[in-house]
Amino acid sequence: MENEINQIIKQVKKGNKDAFGVIIDAYERRIYQHCYRLLGSFHDAEEVTQEAFVKAYTKIHTFKNKQKFSPWIYRIATNTAVDWMRKKKPLYILDQPIAVGENITYLDHVKNTSETPEETIEQKENQDEMQQFLLQLPSKYRVVLVLRYMDELSIKEMSEVLDLPIGTIKTQLHRGREALRELMHGRAKGGQ
Description:
mainly alpha, 8 helices, 0% strand
């Protein structure tokens, strides 16, 4: 896929504006989901996704064909989302529709491996609670945890996306996990 994308990028750089639509089609859903996980809001994720693709299009001339496209677009989306978070507090609504006119929420997309309705309800409650914890974390920790555990990127890929040294990524992951653990531990204490 990367070779195909690199060929399309060459076409875009030569002035073929329509070719960028193929890139959007290939990455829009993943970038949207990534932004939603970071922001926790359907509307904000949609806005940031659009803004990220506009930025990618205007900066396509800076993309080097020797690098992989996915870390490059994820970096743009992540930076755009972080900027958005600085400007606006995220909404804590998890059951918003993923797309206009659809009755499917982010939580509906999580695999259901439960066998009983009680397990399904418990799993949904756990997912809701985890999203709430993530939204309480500082953005630098939330970003690395989402990239690692939800987007399933490797440490090296995360380093490329965030343009940070691998050591910094590992440190932020560790601190993010610790901060998440503290939030969860505090909730457990408060709940008992």
